[in-house]
Every structure is written in structure tokens, then in C-alpha cells.
């Protein structure tokens, strides 16, 4: 009986307790399906990783670290007896679909290959396999042991591809990798420093090696060295050094990315050269196209951005369908192929079609979207595009709108992502209800429908649909019924409330009990449109009905008080009286009579203490007691310093506090007194004597003016 394993699986590890067992468990289906052995080298673990390895390994040994990855991996290979050898890292795990491995390894003699490559999928967000951002890299991870090859390179170790060896891509074999998510900054810098030291030594020996230069470009990310490596690599591509055709496209991709980051004028040239030299490379068709799309878009060059956007989307589709030269991604990792990158381009491209008056293409593209793959921004962009289609073109967006709403609310990959999408949907949708936006729409030459009416099909499903239905309803009874059906008061577009209340519909709706904090939140949101709020409070003369009505009137007028510009002019006096009336209705409903006695006011919040004094101040003023009015305002200010601007406004704009127009005789007397005063220095004793005279006292207010001194108000 032949006990020789078909596959030897090799792993080197140090401190990998976070992920090691996940990796080893993922290998079990493969070990169950094929004769396998697992050989593991411990390079100095101190975190319990060795104990985990001991549960799974067939061979486990120590290998003291000597700063050479090839040496460690070759030590594992030396202990392997399989016909094939496969290497995997601890922060990787094998995709559950192992049929590609099984198919290849059971037929390799007939296939005649020496190497086999798999996709390494590097994740950059925690969603991992459920819609996370990732890049793909084609790595040669399987070797036929009969080749006799060994690892080369002390960093970025690899088997030599030179010679008459044949490589096969196992199309449905994927190693998932999340190591980039869990490296802290100091460890990443330490790793970068270590790798660059080793790469510099290799580059000294092989200065024209595009493989090493590409590795230097990747390992020197965000350092001053990267520009030099890019320059040298681009020269190598231009001069057609060895393997320039394989590494040229990813090198240009890195150059374009660098030029964008550094805002270099050579950007357009490098984009053009990448397309001219490597038009069919998956790097040009995906990554360079991605960056070229954004570059053109930022220049408002919609025609060029559409061209690149379409090229990018086709490139991504071809990648996932396998319609590209697989050897391309042997050279480097391919980014921007995940759903997030694709949707970020597609949603903007749809907007580009609208800029170019191509609604059919916009609609056709949006029909390919899956809301479950979106994030909040992509959802918002899609909503904006649907609204723009509805506003400017005779297009029925109802089916797309309904489908988008259903898809974004599915808890995929989790409820948190669904909540983010929903928030993005509502945020952009609410902007269609803003008063200024609605007024501006009507002046647009291409205007067909108000943007907010896009959401009418969502009535009963979404607060935006309910708000749109409110604003399109003219019948008071129907309007009141619709308002009573609202439940999401914290998200209702305030313009819908302005409309309903402006139509005379009572708020809160009859039979609806809203908490005080709910009403205060609604009032604060309504204060975003200061002019509309002031007009609502002053022109629609709300008559508080019952406790709910009193609470609402108090909250709404308080929001108006906070939003009003007390340093300016306007209807401040009228607003203050309205607030006093609201306080007069509210305070007895919510506080016991004893609490509303002056000696007990300290139990009230500061604004309500001032409200109590303001009520009495206006009562005094209406009784003709101007000094009492000022005294009560002063006492109110003493218990609530936040109303200083308001009190100053009232003392300056209350007509009863302003002096009457002087008679001609008084005006003449004042002019005579000014003439006499002008003949003396201000500190002359004669000035003091004159100011004590009866004549001066009659016209003092005309000469000196009247300003309220808060420290010397009449008692």
C-alpha cells in the first residue's frame, strides 16, 4: 500500500493565535478529500500558537528565525513527502469550495503542469466575504515536488518562474486573507522597514530587475523612496527590460495612483501611456480606468469620464467572468474589483449619463444595481439619480425606487449596514423637501416634477413617501388623517409639517400623544429654516389645545426664540409676546401652583423662570407700568443669563420705552444748551452747574440719549 501523501501543506508561524486555528480548520475539508500531510514550523511563538498547531500538524518543528523567509519555507519543504506542495499563511483561510483543488490534484498527470496558482483575496474592511472591500492577487502556491525547485528571496519569497515550467490557474480556488486589518501602525512600520532593508540589498545586486522594483514600489508606499522606484521602473518599461510586458501595466497603475496623491501634472500623460502601451491588461482596464474615471469627473469632463467608467465596469465584469489574461495578476495585486468600488463608479457614472442627457443609459445602468451591496454613500447617490430622472425626464422610476427601498433594508451583511443604507437614503431624500430647493426647481428650464414627488410610491412604506403624500394633498380631512398616521416624527421632512400646519391642521394630531422630547426635537429641526419658523409662529396664531397643544406651542416658540437674531431688528417684540403667551398656557399645566410662586421658582429650568418673569413684564407694560416692565425683565435676566440679547432687544424696541418726539420749543432749547456746553471743557465746573439747571433737565434726554443700564434699572 502506498502511504505517500498526494499533497503536503506547509505553514510557518510565530505569534498567530488570533487566526491560526481558523486557517487550520479551513484545511480540514481538503485533508478529508485528498491524502494530505500538514508540516508546520514554529519560528518563535510565545502566545500559545504552538499549542494550537500541535492539535492539527502531522509534523511540527522549531526553526529559529534568521531573517530569511525562503530559508524557513525551504526547511518545511525539506520535511515534505507529498507529490505536490502547497503553502498557506496563518492569516489566510481556504474557501469552502475545494472542488478546484480536488479536480486539479487528481488529474495533474494528464494536465502536465508544474505549478498551480490560486487567488489571494486581501480584505480591507471587516465585512470580509460579505461585501467587503478587497483586492485579488494571483499567487503560485502549489508546486510539483518533482521539479526540485526551492524558494528564492529572503523577502517576497517565490519559486523561480524561468525555464520550461507550466503554470495553471485553479479558477475556483481562493485563499481569503485579512491580515491587513489587524496590523497596528507600529508593526506595519516595523515590517515595512524590515522588508525595505532586504529589498534594497536585492536591488543593489539586480538594479534592472522589474520584479524587485515592483516589490520596492509596493513596500515603500507613502514614503519618499517610492517616487524614485517608480521613476526607475517606468524607465525599465520604456526600455523594455526583462518581463516589462508582465509588470508594465501594474507599474503604470502605481504611477497613476501616486500622481493623484501628489497632484502631479504628469498624471494625464501616465494615464494615456498606460492605455496606449497596455490596453488589454486587466490592470489598465480596471485600476487605471478607475482612477482615470475619477480624474475626468473632477474636471467636469463628462464625456471622458463616461468612456473610462464604461471601460472600468466592463473590465470588472470580465475579471469576474474570467475573461482576461490570468498571468496579468501574477505580477501584482489587483484592486478596485470589489462590489463597493464597482458601485462607487457606477452610481457616479449614472449621474454622468444624466449630465449628458442620456436618461435611458442611466436607467439601464441603475437596473443592474443591487441595494444589498451598497453602503450609505452609494445608496444616497442612487436616490439622487432617481430623483433627477424623475425631475427632468419623462421616465417611470417607481419600480427601481421600490426595489431599492426593499433591498437596502435587508440585513445584509448585517443590520448595521442596512441601517447605514437607510440613513443614506433618507438623508438625500430629505434634501428634496427643503423649501429653498423646491422653489429653485420651478425656475429650472428642464423641470418636469418636484423631486419630493419621486417618493410618492413609498407612501405607507417610508416616511418620505408619507411626507410626499402630505404635501400633495389639498383636502383638509384627508390631510389630517395622513398626519395622524405618521410614526417617524424624528425623520419627517419638516417642510411637510410646515405645509400641513399652514393648511390649518392641528398639531400634534388629535389622538396622538407625543413626548415632550419628541416635540422639542421636531421644533429644533424646524428651526433650520428660520424664516419659515418665524412666519409659522407669528402668522398662524396657534391656539394651544390641551396639554399636548401647550407643550407643542411652548417648544415651537422656544425654538423660534433660539433661532431669532436678537442683535438685529424685526419682529422680536411680537415673538417675545407670543412666547410669553405660550409659557402662560404651559406653566400651569406642568407645574404645581406652589412651584409658580416667585419664592419657589428655583425648581423651574432657567428658561421657564425667565418665562414666568416675561409674562408679568408684559402684564406690567400693558397696565402702563414701564418701570415695572424693565424691573421684571431685569429680574428675569438675573435668573437666566442666556436671554441677555433678548432683553436688550426688548428695552431698545419696546415703543413705550422710547421718548416722545420733542416740540419745536424743546428742540430749540436743546440746541441752545448744546451751544453753551460747547464753550466749556467737559470737566469745567460750569458744565456741572448747567446740568443741574431746570432747563437742562427738560432736554437732557435729547442731548444725552437714553440707554438702559442693566445695573441701574429702576426698582
Tell me about this structure.
The chain is an alpha/beta fold. Mean pLDDT is 89; it is low at 706-715. It has helices at 20-33, 49-54, 69-78, 99-105, 108-111, 185-205, 210-219, 225-238, 244-262, 267-277, 282-298, 302-321, 339-355, 359-366, 376-392, 398-408, 415-431, 435-441, 463-471, 476-484, 494-502, 516-526, 530-539, 546-563, 572-590, 606-622, 626-639, 644-653, 664-677, 685-691, 694-704; strands at 7-13, 36-42, 59-62, 84-87, 92-94, 115-123, 134-144, 167-177. Strands 3-2-1-4-7-6-8-5 form an 8-stranded mixed sheet. Helix 9 packs parallel to helix 11 (282-298), helix 10 packs antiparallel against helix 11 (282-298) and helix 13 packs parallel to helix 15 (376-392). The radius of gyration is 38 Å and the shape is elongated.
Question: What key phrases describe this protein's structure?
Answer:
715 residues; alpha/beta; eight-stranded mixed sheet; 8 strands; 8% strand
Amino acid at each position: 500500500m502506498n502511504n505517500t501523501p498526494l499533497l503536503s501543506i506547509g505553514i510557518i508561524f510565530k505569534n498567530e493565535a488570533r487566526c491560526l486555528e481558523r486557517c487550520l480548520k479551513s484545511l480540514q475539508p481538503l485533508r478529508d478529500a485528498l491524502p494530505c500531510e500538514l508540516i508546520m514550523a514554529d519560528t518563535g511563538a510565545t502566545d500559545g500558537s504552538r499549542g494550537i498547531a500541535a492539535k492539527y500538524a502531522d509534523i511540527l518543528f522549531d526553526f529559529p528565525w534568521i531573517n530569511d523567509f525562503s530559508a524557513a519555507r525551504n526547511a518545511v519543504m525539506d520535511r515534505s513527502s507529498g507529490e505536490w506542495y502547497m503553502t498557506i499563511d496563518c492569516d489566510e483561510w481556504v474557501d469552502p469550495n475545494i472542488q478546484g483543488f480536488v479536480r486539479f490534484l487528481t488529474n495533474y498527470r494528464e494536465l502536465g503542469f508544474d505549478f498551480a496558482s490560486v487567488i489571494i483575496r486581501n480584505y480591507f474592511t471587516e465585512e470580509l466575504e460579505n461585501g467587503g472591500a478587497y483586492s485579488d492577487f494571483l499567487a503560485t502556491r502549489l508546486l510539483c515536488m518533482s521539479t526540485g525547485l526551492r524558494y528564492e528571496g529572503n523577502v517576497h519569497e517565490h519559486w523561480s518562474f524561468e525555464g520550461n515550467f507550466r503554470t495553471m490557474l485553479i479558477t475556483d480556488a481562493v485563499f481569503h486573507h485579512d491580515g491587513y486589518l489587524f496590523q497596528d501602525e507600529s508593526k506595519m512600520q516595523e515590517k515595512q522597514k524590515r522588508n525595505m532593508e532586504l529589498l534594497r540589498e536585492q536591488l543593489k545586486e539586480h538594479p534592472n530587475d522589474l520584479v524587485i522594483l515592483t516589490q520596492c514600489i509596493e513596500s515603500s508606499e507613502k514614503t519618499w523612496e517610492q517616487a524614485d522606484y517608480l521613476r526607475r521602473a517606468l524607465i525599465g518599461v520604456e526600455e523594455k527590460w526583462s518581463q516589462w510586458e508582465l509588470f508594465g501595466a501594474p507599474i503604470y497603475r502605481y504611477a497613476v495612483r501616486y500622481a493623484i496623491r501628489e497632484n502631479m501634472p504628469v498624471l494625464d500623460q501616465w494615464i494615456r501611456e498606460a492605455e496606449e502601451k497596455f490596453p488589454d491588461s486587466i490592470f489598465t482596464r480596471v485600476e487605471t480606468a478607475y482612477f482615470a474615471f475619477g480624474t475626468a469627473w473632477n474636471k467636469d469632463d463628462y464625456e471622458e469620464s463616461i468612456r473610462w467608467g464604461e471601460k472600468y465596469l466592463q473590465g470588472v465584469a470580465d475579471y469576474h467572468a474570467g475573461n482576461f489574461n490570468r498571468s496579468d495578476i501574477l505580477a501584482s495585486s489587483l484592486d478596485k474589483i470589489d462590489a463597493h468600488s464597482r458601485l462607487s463608479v457606477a452610481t457616479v457614472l449614472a449621474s454622468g449619463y444624466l449630465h449628458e442627457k442620456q436618461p435611458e443609459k442611466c436607467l439601464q445602468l441603475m437596473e443592474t444595481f443591487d441595494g444589498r451591496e451598497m453602503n450609505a454613500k452609494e445608496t444616497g447617490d442612487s436616490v439622487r439619480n432617481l430623483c433627477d430622472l424623475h425631475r427632468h425626464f419623462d421616465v417611470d422610476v417607481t419600480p427601481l425606487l421600490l426595489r431599492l427601498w426593499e433591498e437596502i433594508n435587508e440585513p445584509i451583511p448585517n443590520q448595521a449596514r442596512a441601517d447605514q443604507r437607510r440613513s443614506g437614503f433618507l438623508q438625500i431624500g430629505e434634501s428634496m423637501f427643503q423649501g429653498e430647493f423646491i422653489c429653485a426647481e420651478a425656475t429650472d428650464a428642464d423641470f418636469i416634477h418636484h423631486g419630493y414627488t419621486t417618493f410618492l410610491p413609498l407612501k405607507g412604506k417610508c416616511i418620505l413617501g408619507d411626507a410626499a403624500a402630505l404635501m400633495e394633498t389639498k383636502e383638509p380631512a384627508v390631510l389630517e388623517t395622513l398626519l395622524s398616521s405618521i410614526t417617524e416624527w424624528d425623520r419627517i421632512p419638516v417642510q411637510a409639517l410646515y405645509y400641513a400646519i399652514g393648511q390649518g391642521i392641528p398639531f400634534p394630531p388629535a389622538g396622538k400623544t407625543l413626548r415632550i422630547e419628541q416635540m422639542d426635537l421636531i421644533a429644533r429641526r424646524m428651526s433650520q429654516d428660520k424664516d419659515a419658523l418665524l412666519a409659522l409662529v407669528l402668522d398662524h396664531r396657534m391656539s394651544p389645545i390641551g396639554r399636548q397643544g401647550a407643550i407643542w406651542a411652548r417648544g415651537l416658540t422656544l425654538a423660534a426664540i433660539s433661532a431669532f437674531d436678537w442683535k438685529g431688528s424685526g419682529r422680536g417684540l411680537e415673538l417675545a409676546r407670543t412666547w410669553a403667551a405660550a409659557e402662560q398656557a404651559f406653566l400651569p399645566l406642568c407645574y404645581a401652583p406652589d412651584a409658580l410662586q416667585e419664592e419657589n421658582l428655583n425648581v423651574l429650568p432657567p428658561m421657564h423662570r425667565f418665562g414666568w418673569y416675561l409674562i408679568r413684564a408684559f402684564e406690567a407694560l400693558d397696565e402702563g407700568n414701564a418701570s415695572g416692565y424693565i424691573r421684571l425683565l431685569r429680574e428675569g435676566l438675573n435668573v437666566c443669563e442666556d436671554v441677555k440679547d433678548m432683553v436688550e432687544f426688548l428695552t431698545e424696541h419696546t415703543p413705550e420705552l422710547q421718548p416722545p418726539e420733542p416740540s419745536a420749543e424743546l428742540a430749540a432749547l436743546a440746541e441752545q444748551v448744546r451751544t453753551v456746553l460747547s464753550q466749556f471743557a467737559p470737566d469745567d465746573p460750569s458744565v456741572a452747574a448747567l446740568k443741574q439747571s431746570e432747563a437742562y433737565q427738560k432736554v437732557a434726554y435729547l442731548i444725552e440719549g437714553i440707554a438702559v443700564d442693566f445695573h441701574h434699572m429702576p426698582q
